[in-house]
Structures are given as C-alpha cells and as structure tokens.
Write a structure and sequence with these properties.
about 110 residues; mainly alpha
C-alpha cells in the first residue's frame, strides 16, 4: 500500500491511529470511530498493516474511554509521516497570514 493508494478517509483514520500511538501509547478511544473505520482497521489488522486488539479489562485505568490498542507497522508509520508532511504543505500553501520576518522582508523594513 502507498500513500497515493489510500482514500482520504483511510488517511484520516491512519493519522488518528498515529496520534493514539504517539499520545497514548497506542490506546484508542473506539467511540471516536465509526463502523467504516472499525472495518478498515480490522482489514488492516488482517493484512499486517496495523495490529489491533482490545485492552484487557483488568488493565484499564478507571474510568477509561481507551479500550482498544493499535500498533502501526513500519509501512503504516511511513505512510502516516508522508501524509503529515502533505497536510502541512497543503495548509502552508493556502495560509492567509505572514510571520513578522516575512512582513519585514516584504517591506524592506530595517530597525
């Protein structure tokens, strides 16, 4: 699978899982996922793209909304990184603001 072969919703899901991996050690709040997301993650699990399973109930801190765990494969990490960079480039290309340095350079301002 490549970055270009993934749909927009698949890329969004992958970044959601990447955030769960980075911010929560892989623990996922499954109620933030819809049925299509869960079906995609289960298919990815079967293919080895990600690892996906429930967290044992006696290991859950109470109260806990993060009841599933994911582990990204090297391929998934690479694609997530490529999509993060692509999102940045899309956002940067359409920004409507300037930094103070850009503003000064545009007007040849010298303090």
């Amino acid at each position: 699978m490549t970055h270009e072969q993934m749909s927009r919703s698949e890329l969004s899901l992958l970044l959601f899982l990447e955030c769960a991996s980075v911010d929560y050690g892989g623990a996922v709040a499954v109620e933030r996922m819809n049925d299509d997301d869960i079906a995609s993650v289960e298919a990815w699990h079967e293919s080895g793209f990600v690892s996906w399973s429930r967290i044992a109930s006696d290991c859950l801190p109470l109260p806990s909304r993060r009841t599933y765990c994911c582990t990204l494969s090297e391929e998934a990490w690479s694609i997530a990184q490529a999509e993060r960079r692509a999102r940045y480039e899309r956002m940067a290309a359409s920004r409507s603001w300037f930094t103070t340095d850009e503003k000064r350079n545009a007007h040849n301002w010298v303090p």
